[in-house]
Specification:
about 80 residues; mainly alpha
Length: about 80
């Protein structure tokens, strides 16, 4: 049976430990990025939805006002 030197044993264990730590850190980073992304999106979507609703409401009011102004013009009211 061939005995390995202490140097090879240390290199093998350090390599295994480095790979395991790298995999664990990558998994941790993926999990935290998914959690933080979903919370940030949830907050931003609420603000965006409120702004869009206000924009649509103001556009509808503006359209109704312009249609009312067009109906009140005499050239539009004259059937002949």
């Amino acid at each position: 049976m061939q005995t390995q030197s202490i140097r090879h044993i240390i290199i093998r264990y350090v390599t295994k430990l480095s790979v395991i730590l790298g995999v664990l850190l990558v998994i941790l980073m993926i999990a935290t990025s998914l959690i933080s992304t979903s919370s940030v999106l949830r907050e931003n979507l609420q603000v965006t939805a409120r702004i869009v609703a206000q924009n649509i409401s103001s556009n509808i009011h503006l359209l109704a006002d312009r249609m009312d102004n067009m109906v009140q013009k005499p050239e539009w009211a004259d059937a002949g």
